[in-house]
Every structure is written in structure tokens, then in C-alpha cells.
Amino acid sequence: MSLTESLSNFALQTIGERVRAMTGSKSNLDDFMSPKGDAGFFGLDSVTWKVHANFTAMMVGGLSSLIVQSLHPRALSAVWDHSDFRNKLKDRLGRTAYFVAATTYGSDAMAMSAIRRVNTIHAHIRGTDLKGNPYIANEPALIRWIHLAEVSSFLSTYQHLAKSPLTQPECDQYIREMARIGHLLGAVDLPLTWQTTQKELAGYIGELQFDARAQEILKVVENYPTDFFDKPFMLLTLKAAFDVMPSWVLEVIEKQPSCALQAQATQIALNLISEPIQWMLDKQGVSAVARQRIQGDSAHA
Q: What pLDDT does 4 receive?
């Protein structure tokens, strides 16, 4: 092995360790290697593959969506009453990251297994919200809210950070592709265009509250646990998470929007600092492994 190869392998390993430390990911890449030729739910040419391969957009979008999702009191009750999310934020994000990876890049069987597991868990999560009304986590209306907030956050962030943002038809294709996951999780009547997704997400305004519970969730996210070396990246990630939120969400959580110059500076700095991470993931991340599986060989993507 040459010196260049040794240095490259060392850099890949080091960056990979930092990614796992930041995200809480415990996924095994071997799970994505078979069966050969299985394209999974979406395949190489899907917009979902392109969006979800952007690590920084997924980190920013993930944190942004958690804050937005917490504003729905009934949806938050299920998380508040049945998880230790507030003390184990990284574990929660790690599980979410695995689900997204499994349904995006896994085989058909792997994707369906991940969906069935979530549906089984949701079916047993029930309780009473703060108004005394009973809830079940797999209520179609709650699943719909979670889905809309998530896909909106992921796509908004990708458009904000990507060097080549998606065209309008590509945005609509992403929404259609992701609707398959939402429907399998129990959501109904999901919008199939980017414009209607934004409109229907805003239609929930009357149901949202920035109450004490939601305020605590915001505080937890803003104090995301990171090692010293990862703090600059996470600080920029959190700034960007607010920059990609709709203006009406910022009003609800009582945050002032960044000025255009600030948002652009954050965007540029975040893209620069994340380049080594994206380089590593493009070489040996889950999308690279899945690409090898579909192509039926061991060549690097």
C-alpha cells in the first residue's frame, strides 16, 4: 500500500469515527450489501437517493424537523410520555438515521422490515394528552404531520445547501417518492407536490403550540451533545436549522430570522467544513455500499 493510500485510509477512518460520534449511528454497512442487484424502494436514479446522500442537509434537516414536529402537542405527547428523548437525543437521531438509510438505500426486504418495526412500536404507544384526550401514536393524522414536517425540512435544507439545487419537477418527484414511505407508515392523503406540501404543512398552524414541553425540546436540540472537535460543525448546523424553517415556524418559536448575509455566511461555512465528511461518505458510506449492491460488484461508487 502506498503512502497516499495509507493516508487516505487513515482520513476515511478518522472522519467516519467523527460522523458516528456526532450522529449516534450504530448501523452496520454489511446489512446494505445484499442481495446483489436489489434496487430497494427507489434505486440509483431516484431523487431520494440524491437528497439523502447529502450528509449535512440531512443533519440540518433532521434537527429542524425535530423542532417543528414538537410544536404539535398530540404528536409531542407520544414522544414525551414514551421515550427518554430529552436525555438521549443522539440515540433518537441515530434510530431515525437508520430508518432513513434502510428505507432509502436498503433492499426491499430491509426497507419493509424497518417500516414494520416502526409500525409495531407505534401501535403500542398510547396515552392521554395534556387536554385529557386519548391518543395512539399510529393515528393517521399524527403520522401525516410527522411526515410533512420531515420531508419539508429535508428538501428545504437540500435546496438551501446543495451546490446544484433541484429543479421544480425534481422537488415534486422527491415528494412523490417519499409519500410511499409515509403511506406505508399509516399516513393518508399525502400531497404529491412540493407546493402543496408547504401549503398543507402551514395548514396546521392553528393546532401548534410553543408550550413548556416544546420549549424544552428546543432547548435540548440547541444543546446537542457533541465532542469538542465537533462543536464548530454542530454550531453551524444548528444555525442553518433555523435558516431553513418557514417564517411562520420562526414566529411560533419566537425566533428572529437571520438576515440574508448571515444565512449565506452560515451556508458557505457549513459547506466548507463538511466537505471532508461528504468525501468520506461518498467513498464508503451507506449510499456507496448500496450502489455496489445494485451494480452487483465491489467497485467503488
A: 55
